[in-house]
């Protein structure tokens, strides 16, 4: 298939593209490479896919990979509807995987407009391009943050999610609503994926795994919010990629209802892990003890996440299998090599 993956220099996007390329799909990656976090890490991911920094810095120009004959990259923004429309018209994608978004719950308190631009305006542009270019299937990133103040666990896609507590969460809920509308009106498939706390090699510097490892190695205190009384459905990147790629390749089971145009799934580890246990796994791997700075709950944060992934298991034989200890060891090994520490 020919597949567009937006958010190509991002953590999940990079890994998804690599898996698709190894499976011999033709992929076009798109990313604006914004400075929400260290752009050097983003350029390093793209370099792994065979795109030099010099080429990746060019705007609105498709460049070829030196490593993969089936990969090309364009630095552009999904809010640029003219460039996006031309790209869809020229490439005629079979499937679109929209992972581009302004990420981060806490940053949405500081810069709300960035979320409206990318997560709402940009997403409408993606929907419009899929509509007019007869794209067979749109797979897009939602988030576990949509569950907001829900107390019932594990979180199910059947739960009411009308009470988000951050603009980031509200923007992701709006994506689900807009995708439903377009699937209904224009008769194309859309699948939303509510990601749960993804971690692993090449991970984001603003996420707990990265922040904790960096601070502990530098013998600096780590900020532990809600005084450690938090639980997260930490999900290793390989398990996430397995699920995303199975959906993109349409490798569903006999239980899947192919008549449904709109689908929504949780994608997580199907297990909630205490934050203090996660920190302990990092300490054990580093053979260092963390200096914990116990902090109050952050605005927009939730105490516990836990994904009910039964429907993804039923429809796509999804099988997350990476234990926390293994995932943490893989990340720390990558971190030490990448940063030469």
From TrEMBL:
The keyword NAD applies. Keywords: NAD. It comes from the Bacteria. CDD domains: UDP_GE_SDE_e. InterPro entries: Epimerase_deHydtase, NAD(P)-bd_dom_sf. It holds the Pfam family Epimerase. Residues 3-268 form the NAD-dependent epimerase/dehydratase domain. This is NAD-dependent epimerase.
């Amino acid at each position: 298939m020919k597949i567009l993956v937006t958010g190509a220099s991002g953590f999940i996007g990079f890994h998804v593209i690599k898996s698709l390329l190894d499976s011999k799909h033709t992929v076009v990656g798109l990313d604006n490479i914004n400075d929400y976090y260290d752009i050097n890490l983003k350029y390093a991911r793209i370099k792994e896919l065979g795109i030099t920094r010099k080429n990746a810095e060019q705007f609105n120009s498709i460049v070829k990979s030196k490593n993969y004959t089936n990969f090309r990259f364009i630095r552009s923004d999904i809010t640029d509807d003219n460039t996006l429309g031309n790209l869809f018209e020229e490439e005629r994608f079979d499937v679109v995987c929209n992972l581009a978004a302004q990420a981060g719950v806490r940053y949405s308190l500081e810069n709300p407009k960035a979320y409206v631009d990318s997560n709402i305006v940009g997403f409408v542009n993606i929907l419009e391009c899929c509509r007019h270019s007869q794209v067979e299937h749109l797979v897009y990133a939602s988030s576990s943050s949509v569950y907001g103040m829900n107390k019932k666990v594990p979180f199910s896609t059947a739960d009411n999610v009308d009470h988000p507590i951050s603009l980031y969460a509200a923007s992701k809920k709006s994506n689900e609503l807009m995708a439903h509308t377009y699937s209904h009106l224009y008769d194309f498939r859309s699948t939303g994926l509510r990601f749960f706390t993804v971690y692993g090699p090449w991970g984001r510097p603003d996420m707990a795994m990265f922040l904790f490892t960096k601070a502990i190695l530098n013998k600096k205190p780590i900020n532990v919010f809600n005084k450690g009384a938090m639980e997260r459905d930490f999900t290793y990147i390989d398990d996430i990629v397995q699920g995303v790629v199975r959906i993109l390749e349409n490798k569903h089971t006999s239980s899947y209802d192919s008549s449904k145009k709109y689908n929504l799934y949780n994608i997580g580890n199907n297990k909630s892990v205490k934050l203090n246990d996660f920190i302990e796994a990092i300490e054990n791997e580093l053979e260092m003890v963390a200096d914990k700075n116990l902090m109050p709950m952050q605005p927009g944060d939730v105490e516990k996440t836990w994904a009910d992934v039964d429907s993804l298991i039923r429809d796509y034989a999804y099988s997350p299998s990476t234990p926390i200890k293994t995932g943490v060891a893989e990340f720390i090994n990558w971190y030490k090599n990448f940063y030469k520490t």
